[in-house]
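Lab meeting, item 3. Inverse folding demo.
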């Protein structure tokens, strides 16, 4: 806590951003761990079942996989086949939106954080130069002590 106080007011937003970013990373990681997408072998197996017309088996797999529940509605009888592409395209866009949830916020915070760090560095340099200038303005022209330079006034 003393480092945050010594760092100045810029450290408070950096700390908050760090906590938010950590929460977002944990949220997305747990989401991907708990809802895994099918691997290449499973995809090949499902595709073969769909091509053979075994829609019931593919529909069962889709309804059991959390990320792919929307695909179960796309499968069914061969009467739905003309509409199959449109249904799949709609479901793919909803799946992509679900997977990309909160990622733009994470990207924005990742861009802002270095700028806040740079701002803190610049503020610290300005304060250091102010201490140097203040010591130079004394009649004795003494150089500032390292302790004076390391603390902000």
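The presenter then showed the designed sequence:
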């Amino acid at each position: 806590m003393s480092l945050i106080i010594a760092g100045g007011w810029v450290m408070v937003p950096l700390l908050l951003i760090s906590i938010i970013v950590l929460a977002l990373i944990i949220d997305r990681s747990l989401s991907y761990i708990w809802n895994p997408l099918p691997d290449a072998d499973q995809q090949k197996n499902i595709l073969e079942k769909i091509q053979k017309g075994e829609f019931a088996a593919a529909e069962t797999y889709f309804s059991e996989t959390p990320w792919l529940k929307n695909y179960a509605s796309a499968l069914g009888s061969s009467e739905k086949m003309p509409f199959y592409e449109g249904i799949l395209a709609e479901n793919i866009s909803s799946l992509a939106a679900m997977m990309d949830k909160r990622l733009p916020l994470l990207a924005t915070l990742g861009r802002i954080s270095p700028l806040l760090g740079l701002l803190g560095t610049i503020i610290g340099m300005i304060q250091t130069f102010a201490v140097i200038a203040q010591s130079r303005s004394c009649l004795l022209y003494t150089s500032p002590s390292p302790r004076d330079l390391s603390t902000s006034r």
